[in-house]
Amino acid sequence: MDAREARLRKLRMRSWRRGMKEMDLILGPFADAELAAFDDALLEAYEQMLDENDQDLYLWVTGATPCPERLAPLLGRVARAAGVARAG
To answer: Which domains does the chain have, with CATH numbers?
Structure first.
């Protein structure tokens, strides 16, 4: 297994095992479907997003509260892929 494959496996595992079931169900399928197509910069952004608190991520993905601008494009992509209806 090369370094990229190992990184993708780690990110998929982190996406499926978040600690908040709602985020598992949003991020897990997203990671399975989308991460292989990400370039290194997007993978880095995704890793940084995974470092955020699940409760905050859930509110940001659903649009219940505004997200940090640096995460807005990625969270919008996650929300669209998950079919999450964003508030506001």
So the answer is: 3-82 (1.10.150.250)
